[in-house]
Amino acid sequence: MLKSMTGFGSAEYKDDACMMHIEIRSVNNRFLKIDSRLPDVLQTFENEIERPIREKIVRGTVLLNINYHSLKQESEYILNTDKLREYHKLLNDIKKEMGSRERVSINSLMLLPGIFLKGKKSPENADNILSLSVTLLNQALDKMLEMRAIEGKNLAKDIEQRKEFILSMLQKIEMRAPAVAQEYSKRLKNRAASLLAGTDIELTDSNLYREIAIFAERCDITEEINRLKSHLNQLHETLCSDEPTGRKIDFIVQEMFRETNTMCSKANDSILLKDLVDVKTEIEKIREQAFNIE
């Protein structure tokens, strides 16, 4: 089944402890390129996170964005009770030495340096977060692949229609091709008769036939038509393949252009050229669609 390189998928998880949201999207690229934006806790697991993408996608630029937030309520500061006791004892000793009866205020002690320390968050379980991220990534990846498959089906339908149009044009070209030599024969005889009128020169039929045969050989496009039909058959078979086919279709389209250009150079006929231009236009549209195929 044909697959597009364009798609989008997302997945989300939330409980009392954390929240994670994953988005993955892909756009066209001749090769596979992954651009990951990960939270700090997952920075060291980039290869493990990207592995499912590399296993399921062959071509395209993949943009992966993972947002993770811990919902645990943790104090920003903690009380240094050891330092508080140390200050209290020190001030009481000084009071005794000075004979002071002033009470030591807890509020005043709280303002002294070192009483409050910056809190340290409890270490997060990186393995559990990694496991969650891979699970959600696979869910989002499946959604994106489903979208790529639907778009690929539409691309295949469009290319198949253009292939059928080219085949119908080739039938017209095949019917027209023999008439080109016949019309040239008539023009050649009429022109020769006009040029030799009033002279004693006679042009033998053998000379005319030889000239007509050379022209017919030079304008014969039978071989190119057969090769182009063969490429169209290969294109149809490729569209039905389950393997990634974008590069193969691109190659087939190049060969189709090659045969059509050769026919254009050989076709000494305005009607044939018009039909061949229509064929080239359809091939160009197929090539544009091939840019979107994985």
Structural features, described:
This protein folds into three domains: 7-72 and 126-149, 2-Layer Sandwich (Ribosomal Protein S5, domain 2), CATH 3.30.230.40; 77-118, no CATH class; 153-290, Butyryl-CoA Dehydrogenase, subunit A, domain 3, CATH 1.20.140. Helix 1 (46-56) links the parallel strand 3 and strand 4. It is built from eight helices and six strands, in the order E-E-E-H-E-E-H-H-E-H-H-H-H-H. The strands form two sheets. It has a four-stranded mixed sheet. Strands 5-6 form a two-stranded antiparallel sheet. The longest helix has 71 residues, at 126-196. The chain is α+β, with helices and mostly antiparallel strands and 294 residues long. The protein is rod-shaped. Helix 4 (126-196) runs antiparallel to helix 8. The model has no long low-confidence stretch (mean pLDDT 84).
Could you provide a short overview of the structure?
By secondary structure, the protein is of the alpha+beta class.
Please summarize the sheet with the most strands. 4 strands, mixed
Following the backbone from N to C, one meets helices and strands in this order, namely: EEEHEEHHEHHHHH
Low-confidence segments, given as residue ranges, are none
- Total of domains: 3
Terminal Cα separation, in Å?
11 Å
Task: Return the structural class.
Answer: alpha+beta
Q: Please report the number of helical segments.
A: 8
Identify the CATH architecture of the largest domain: Up-down Bundle
Q: What is the third-level CATH name, the topology of the largest domain?
A: Butyryl-CoA Dehydrogenase, subunit A, domain 3
CATH class of the largest domain: Mainly Alpha
Considering DSSP H and I runs of 4 or more, what fraction of the residues is helical?
Answer: 55-70%
Protein name: YicC family protein
GO molecular function: hydrolase activity; RNA endonuclease activity
Family: Belongs to the YicC/YloC family.
Keywords: Endonuclease, Hydrolase, Nuclease
